[in-house]
């Protein structure tokens, strides 16, 4: 009991001494918090402004029909005959050849320029074989036609031309007739076809001051 009581003061002293020798902890100073670097500014790309599309253009095709009036040939005289000019277009059949013709009231028989004219026989009948030239295209049209007769045509004071006469369909405007046509060799004439009175009588009246009155 005496030992225990004597140690008490000693323990107290040692505790006090221990408190004085124990190093004190330094106060911890909070370190400044590092701030985040500022975020780089990102600029949005400027988009090109697009214009609104315009209204679609609708093309409208407008069809307009124009009626072309048909020229009606003039008529004259008590019989109401068609008036034609001194020059008209005519068609010969055969061969369906279209020619510019001279209308001549002073000539009795219609005539046409023909080449390589020759007479031949077929089945006991006399025929004439000849060639007609298309001045527009230069095409040659061979024709065979039955011989009707022969005529003598006086050219000048003493020269006489002997011609063959055949029948051909001749059409001028709406008039079409099967008439006699004499075959002549006159390449120097301006018009290869001369239409005479054997076509014109009771069919047409000629106005010599006009040309191409028919369609």
Automatic annotation (TrEMBL):
<feature type="domain" description="Retropepsin-like aspartic endopeptidase">
    <location>
        <begin position="83"/>
        <end position="212"/>
    </location>
</feature>
<dbReference type="InterPro" id="IPR021109">
    <property type="entry name" value="Peptidase_aspartic_dom_sf"/>
</dbReference>
<keyword id="KW-0645">Protease</keyword>
<dbReference type="Pfam" id="PF05618">
    <property type="entry name" value="Zn_protease"/>
</dbReference>
<dbReference type="GO" id="GO:0006508">
    <property type="term" value="P:proteolysis"/>
</dbReference>
<dbReference type="InterPro" id="IPR008503">
    <property type="entry name" value="Asp_endopeptidase"/>
</dbReference>
<keyword id="KW-0378">Hydrolase</keyword>
<protein>
    <submittedName>
        <fullName>ATP-dependent zinc protease</fullName>
    </submittedName>
</protein>
<dbReference type="GO" id="GO:0008233">
    <property type="term" value="F:peptidase activity"/>
</dbReference>
């Amino acid at each position: 009991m005496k030992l225990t009581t004597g140690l008490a003061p000693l323990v107290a002293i040692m505790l006090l001494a221990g408190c004085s020798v124990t190093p004190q902890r330094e106060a911890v100073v909070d370190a400044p918090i590092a701030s985040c670097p500022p975020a780089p500014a990102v600029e949005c790309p400027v988009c090109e402004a697009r214009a609104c599309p315009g209204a679609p253009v609708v093309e409208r095709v407008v069809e307009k029909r124009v009626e072309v009036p048909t020229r009606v040939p003039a008529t004259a005289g008590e019989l109401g005959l068609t008036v034609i000019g001194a020059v008209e277009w005519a068609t010969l059949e055969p061969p369906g050849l279209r020619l510019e013709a001279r209308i001549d009231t002073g000539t009795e028989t219609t005539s046409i320029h023909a080449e390589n004219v020759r007479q031949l026989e077929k089945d006991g009948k006399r025929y004439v074989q000849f060639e007609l030239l298309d001045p527009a295209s230069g095409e040659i049209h061979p024709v065979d036609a039955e011989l009707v007769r022969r005529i003598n045509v006086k050219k000048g004071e003493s020269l006489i031309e002997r011609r063959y006469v055949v029948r051909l369909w001749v059409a001028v405007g709406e008039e079409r007739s099967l008439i006699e046509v004499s075959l002549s060799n006159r390449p120097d004439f301006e018009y290869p076809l001369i239409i005479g009175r054997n076509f014109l009588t009771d069919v047409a009246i000629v106005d010599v001051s006009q040309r191409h009155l028919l369609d």
